[in-house]
Amino acid sequence: MDRRYKMRIERYWNKMEKQADEALSKLDFNEWFDLWHTHPDWDGKGNSRPENRQRASTLTIQLLQKVEDLSGNSKKTIQCFAIVCEDTMENSVYIHSENPNGSQFPFLFEDVNWSQKVDELESIINKELYEYGVFNKDDSQTYFIRKKS
Length: 149
Fold this sequence. Notes:
The chain is α+β, with helices and mostly antiparallel strands.
């Protein structure tokens, strides 16, 4: 990777992390959430190179850990999870709770296969704390990551 590109992409990832941190800092974890989410790769730069894809996935998991840390002192029961997608722009970290909108709580992860191995995630997930599952739809896969219960 050329040095100039490496500097540009590092600035991009730092910017994405800062944006996500700013969004999280505005949340009150004692309020309700209806599948609130943020994306750690708004511009989809993780799609351009394999090392960027891994960085997008790693940042998604780091944000999930931050969300869980921030929600840990909430008086409400909060469900946190992340998704990693083939299009990294769709990677997201979700916060969900009972809410007045009537959205099902907890989120049930219907049709997610929690026993399928995914090489892309094996090296970046702490499997003592988290589990991941695969949701297949049409010709694409979405990987769900959640804290082990």
